[in-house]
Amino acid sequence: MCFRVKHSTNRQKRVQLWVVVLLLVSLFFFTIPARATESDGFSAQAQEGQDLYQKLKTGKRPQSEKTYETPEQPTVYLTFDDGPSKLTSQVLDILDKENVKATFFALGEQAEAHPALVKRIVQDGHTLGNHSYNHVYKELYSDFQTFWDQIQRSEDVFASLADTRPQLVRAPGGTYTNFDAYYYYLMDQAGYTIVDWNVDSGDSKRVRVPASEIWQTIKGSPLEHEINILFHDGSGHESTVEVLPQVISYYKKLGYAFAPLTTQVKPKQFPVGKPKWSRNMSLAHFQDLLKETQQYALAHVQTDQDQKDAELHLAQQTAVAREETAQILSAQAAVPLQVHVAGGSSFTIEPAEYQLRANRIELPLRFLIEKMGGQIEWQAEKKKANAHFGVYDLEYDLSARSIRLYTLGNSVATYSLADMDLQDGKIIVPLRKTIDLLGGRITDTVIESDKREVSVALRPFYMFKENNSILKNSLFAMGG
Asked: How far apart are CA 231 and CA 201, in angstroms?
């Protein structure tokens, strides 16, 4: 009896030992795939980081998916760099008088010297942007870490003075040849929007640029649906203050509205050029910077209410701009347009026969062709118009939004998505582009509050009888 009990006990111990062994073996084999998966994850992440690093090293910029609001009215965004200074209060007074909102890319160093002006910029409804702390190129562009530290330092200044952390950043001197793909990418990862410009007023080309020169630069700049103008409100820019009312009046007369920049406005950005600064970005340094910028983004993510407030602000500005533009266009309605044709007769276009949109003159195709001595035929069932002028024939197809050009009966070109519209049974076309199609060009334009004149030069017909290729080289695209 005792033997049996002892035997049973030993057997039970052996079974327990085997159970323990089996559990340990199972645990070992189960942990191997988990460890392998974890290792593979780290390996894949490291490889992805290296691939991104190499891509940026070649100068390629990964573009993030963002949506922007396009204003209905042609809009000017006035921007002022390098302030605030003693001149900023004068700029703010002018903007207040003109009921115009603008954007101020301020320096942290200057903000500390003029705290009241920073507060006024925000309180008056303008946008405050970050322009670094001290504007010293050699420091800012020697290494991204220095640029980043200056942006953070200025941001802390703005937060303490006006309780705002600007997400719009303008690089001193602009991004071209100063930024590389690393700069762009890291700032984007942090949630900042980098803003350059598409019109440079020239007020900082040298010391004391005359107001007359700034004015000529502005007047000679191209007109786009959205214009971002670079001005400066730092010390020594008295000429900017002097010319500002004239600039505002000029764009208002052209039908432009004014608005401050926000993160909802598509930023003007220069392409990545070869950096003029000697710097080296190692993989380890890039990974450290990427971690730092991404942590900033997580700590400063906008709330839903912040986003709604920004959208509401933009909507309010758009409504004000639309009302102002309607008033301006209504006041301009009584000004006739004088057209002077070189070597030919001149004629007048009454206010009811044309419209001015952002300095682009639009008028009925039939009116223009017949005034210039041509003929036009309208095919209502096909929604097509055939215009004949000298050696040219233009076929306008409203359904396809295309224009086919013939010279001496030979097809020369077809333009898709052409500028044309049907209003009250009339085909409305842009004056300048139509003149271009007819082998001519506009040599001078005067658009003032009480005077509008256009001078037109037409190419002699006999030139095209000798060589039709001249025509092909002289045409301008009709799209866009």
From this structure: 6
User: What residues in the chain have per-residue pLDDT under 50?
Assistant: 1-6, 34-38, 41-42, 303-305, 307, 311, 461-480
The DSSP annotation for 294-337 comes to HHHHHHTPPPHHHHHHHHHHHHHHHHHHHHHHHHHHHHTTT--E
Instruction: Name the residue type at position 285.
Output: H
**Which structure tokens are listed for 233?**
């409100």
H runs (alpha helix) in 124-281: 137-140, 144-162, 181-189, 211-219, 238-253
**97 and 189, same domain (yes or no):** yes
Q: Are 384 and 252 members of one domain?
A: no
> What's the total number of domains in the chain?
2
Spatial separation of the C-alpha atoms in residues 422 and 406, rounded to whole Å: 23
Q: What is the pLDDT of residue 472?
A: 39
User: The tokens 């062709």 sit on which residue?
Assistant: 369
Task: Say yes or no: 124 and 191 in one domain.
Answer: yes
Nearest to 223 by CA among 262, 256, 174: 256
Tokens of 7: 């035997």
Q: Which of 327, 361, 384 is the last residue of a domain?
A: 327
Residue whose entry in the numeric block shows the structure tokens 């942290």: 108
- Same domain as 394, residue 311: no
Q: Does residue 311 sit in the same domain as residue 369? A: no
Question: What CATH number is given to the structural domain containing 231?
Answer: 3.20.20.370
- The first and second tokens of residue 330, run together, are 């209504």
Q: Are residues 179 and 210 in the same domain?
A: yes
Task: Map tokens 């396809």 to a residue.
Answer: 400
Q: What is the pLDDT of residues 245-282, one digit of tens each?
A: 999 999 998 888 999 999 999 999 998 888 899 898 99
Query: Cα(83)–Cα(81) distance, rounded to whole angstroms?
Result: 6
Q: 343 and 283: one domain? A: no
Q: Kindly state whether residues 251 and 387 are assigned to the same domain.
A: no
Helices (H) and strands (E) counted in the chain, each on its own, are: 15, 21
Query: pLDDT value at position 269?
Result: 94
pLDDT digits (tens, 9 = 90+) for 202-214: 999 999 999 999 9
Which of helix, strand or coil describes residue 439? coil
